[in-house]
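Key result, reporting period 2: structure in, sequence out.
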């Protein structure tokens, strides 16, 4: 059969530590992520699973991967031994996982659970032990992960082999709709009916129980007409494996280091969990206005743009150019439906999570790379989003920086820097369209980072509307969500000027003092305080590879004439921050960004500037 790239994937990487990755069965960019859900015990259970746990409360059909907030977990099934059982114990030694497949052997009840998936449907196989006299399976529509709370749910038994219904919930996605249609291969009887939870019984025999569940955000009827894989479970496993093989084989590397190969292909695998398909086979989808739309394109969701504009989305333009037209249509339709491009879009909802205008660099990159036919429409959407008065932008327009006394939501230095790089992207698009006045306006705004740079101390600092620096100032100190930085401190935020690195060098007075400051980043140490964000991880000195604002920093040496220093540090990050182990990531996977950095850096090319396709050698 020859080389199979799927054999090099270890889905367990990132399930420990702070990786927060999804573990289970899915296909590339699929709507369904079917996998085990454990009790939510804290921040490290955001995906529903953590390697330290040994209890499963359900096999839910939808999960997130690498986020800092827990959500989803919808439509959960669980084999049980009695009606009152709500969880099962398992041993990690009994798990088996590969791209598109997950299995675990439970002890009580004695059932082998196997999972696989298509884009829009989950497929389960329960093989009961000889000692099981009566098979029982629990359907839980109440269950959710993290912030997710059920607000309304209902199921109905259509016949002795079919159950359908819906679940509405609120949480990170404030208005989430999930409809399902589940078919069984053998008769089931309702044993217990309790609000949004049901227990069904079935006769165990020599044939396993199979459950096919289609999902939709639109209707039960659409869930019924999802991909219908038949009843050959093994065939669907093979199809899922082939789907992953097709995508993984787009990149071929040569190495004698088996761990390096596994880390690379697992990272590539992780970059393809999202964006997730968010439309039905008939083209219908639930839009950002919560209404049902029908499009002649594939609609997507799960846009963690503050993270992914840096490497994951640019990587998609290289590896998945055929998907870019649909990504463009999705983002422009979101802009039409909610009045601006997405910030952090989840299941048709704008969460407004994180800061800046992170949809702008992605759209601008697609315009400048030639993926957008309607350049004018995309430009107007970007421009409109930059002229709003929300999320600190009113202060930005008044002062040419976000003043801390005018924005009660804090993180004003980080906002200033994020808006500056987004404005630089708009300026590039304006220039390409011949909009000279707009080009000058947004180019001027892109220089706002200079107004929060304090030359006396060599850091970006918070200022009030009168121009006064915030006092006292400690470049190491960080308070999560409550100071001038977003998940970081002043040391980490000096460098967030990827759109104008030479301009930042000038702020320091030239390449030599700039390099001296950059060198110091990797060995200075200091107390960040007890209230610092847990996202500040993967530290080399104060360089924090575990969080996205640092991801371009190593490549800044190239701009200052000393690329070998960056190359040495990139190698150190490879060796120390990525491992073939459960605790193999230095921070949140962040919906593909942490892994995309590894993939692009391994290939030796990194897009430091947010838009336009200028790559820096690594």
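The corresponding designed sequence is given below.
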């Amino acid at each position: 059969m020859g080389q199979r790239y799927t054999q090099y994937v270890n889905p367990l990487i990132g399930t420990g530590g702070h990786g927060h990755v999804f573990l289970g069965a899915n296909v590339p960019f699929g709507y369904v992520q079917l996998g085990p859900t454990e009790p939510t015990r804290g921040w490290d259970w955001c995906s529903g699973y953590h390697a330290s746990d040994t209890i499963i409360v359900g096999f839910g059909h939808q999960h997130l991967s690498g986020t800092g907030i827990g959500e989803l977990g919808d439509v959960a099934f669980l084999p049980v031994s009695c009606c009152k059982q709500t969880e099962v114990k398992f041993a990690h030694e009994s798990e088996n996982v590969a791209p598109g497949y997950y299995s675990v052997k439970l002890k009580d009840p004695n059932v082998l659970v196997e999972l696989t998936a298509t884009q829009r449907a989950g497929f389960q196989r329960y093989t009961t032990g000889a000692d099981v006299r009566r098979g029982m399976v629990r359907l839980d529509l109440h269950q959710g992960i993290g912030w997710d709370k059920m607000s309304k749910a209902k199921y109905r038994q259509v016949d002795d082999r079919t159950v359908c219904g819906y679940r509405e919930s609120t949480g990170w996605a404030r208005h989430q709709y999930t409809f399902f249609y589940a078919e069984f291969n053998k008769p089931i009887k309702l044993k217990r009916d309790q609000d949004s939870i049901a227990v069904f019984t079935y006769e165990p025999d020599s044939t396993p129980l199979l459950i096919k569940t289609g999902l939709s955000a639109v209707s039960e009827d659409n869930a019924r007409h999802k991909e219908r894989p038949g009843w050959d479970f093994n065939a669907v496993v093979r199809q899922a494996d082939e789907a992953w093989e097709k995508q993984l084989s787009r990149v071929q590397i040569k190495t004698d280091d088996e761990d390096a190969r596994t880390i690379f292909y697992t990272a590539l695998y992780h970059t393809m969990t999202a964006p997730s398909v968010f439309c039905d086979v008939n083209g219908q989808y639930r839009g950002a206005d919560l209404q049902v739309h029908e499009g002649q394109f594939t609609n997507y969701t799960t846009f963690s743009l503050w993270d992914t504009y840096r490497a994951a989305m640019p990587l998609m333009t290289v590896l998945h150019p055929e998907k870019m037209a649909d990504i463009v249509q999705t983002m422009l339709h979101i802009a039409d439906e909610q009045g601006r491009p997405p910030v952090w879009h989840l299941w048709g909802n704008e969460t407004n999570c994180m800061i800046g205008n992170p949809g702008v660099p992605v759209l601008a990159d697609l315009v400048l790379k030639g993926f957008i036919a309607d350049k004018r429409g995309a430009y107007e959407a970007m421009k409109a989003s930059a002229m709003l008065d929300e999320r600190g932008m009113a202060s930005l327009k008044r002062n040419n920086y976000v003043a801390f006394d005018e924005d009660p939501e804090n993180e004003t230095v980080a906002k200033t820097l994020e808006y500056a790089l987004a404005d630089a992207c708009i300026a590039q698009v304006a220039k390409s369209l011949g909009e000279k006045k707009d080009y000058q306006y947004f180019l001027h705004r892109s220089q706002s980072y200079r107004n929060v740079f304090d030359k006396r101390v060599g850091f970006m600092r918070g200022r009030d509307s009168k121009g006064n620096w915030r006092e006292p100032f400690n470049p190491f100190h960080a308070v999560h969500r409550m100071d001038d930085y977003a998940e970081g401190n002043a040391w980490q935020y000096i460098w967030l000027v990827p759109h104008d690195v030479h301009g930042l060098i000038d702020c320091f007075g030239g390449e030599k003092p700039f390099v001296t400051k950059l060198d110091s980043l990797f060995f200075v140490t200091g107390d960040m305080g007890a209230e610092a964000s847990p996202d500040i991880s993967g530290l080399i000195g104060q360089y924090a590879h575990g969080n996205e604002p640092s991801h371009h920093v190593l490549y800044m040496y190239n701009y200052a004439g000393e690329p070998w220093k960056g190359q040495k540090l990139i190698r150190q990050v490879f060796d120390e921050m990525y491992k073939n182990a459960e605790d193999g990531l230095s921070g949140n996977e962040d919906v593909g960004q942490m892994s995309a950095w590894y993939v692009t850096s391994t290939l030796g090319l990194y897009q430091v500037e947010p838009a336009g396709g200028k790559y820096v050698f690594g």
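The chain has a mean pLDDT of 96. The first strand starts at residue 35 and ends at 37. This case is discussed further under Risks and Mitigation.
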